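seq:
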Amino acid sequence: MVNLGGNVYSTINATTDFGCAVSGVCLLTFAATDVVGNINSTATLAITVDTDNPAVFAATTNDADNILKSTDSVVISVNATDTTTSVVNVTVNGTAMTQSGYIWSTASLPVSTWCAATGPCTLTFTAVDEVGHVNNTETLTFTVDDTVPAVFAQGYNESTVGMSKEITIFANVTDNIGIFNVSAQYASNTPVVMAANGDQYSVST
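struct:
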């Protein structure tokens, strides 16, 4: 060690110079020798060595099926931990996340914050620990769907019927993601849900 003046000695070294090459507590022992050879080696210093990247896992949204419109609001969450030090910052595609224990979450934001186009939307998480180690391997993919269903080949089994005569109406409906339901409605009356048979939906009333 180098004498800086008076009783102060110092050294600038990498932790590996002392044999501290793995994550954990590294205990250093100081040895001071005077001019006649007396030695004091009772002083120690414990330092924490961190050689590992943070662990990032279990990314999720607060949506049940992860199929969303670009105008929908969503909360993105992920777990981020570090075995030796602390995780100090997590972002998802550049958007800051807030910590609650090991879980980091965004505010409720529109899907268009990250993805506006219809199709798969893949987000990448970046976690940084106290010493600057980075993990950006965790991703989350959900689906953006702004495409309205296609409705075509509407028809009926009779063109003219009386008031009490039953009529069957049908329509072919398709969607790039899937159909939730199809209904038929006249003016402001209650919609009548149609039954599915493949891409064709029908109702008799």
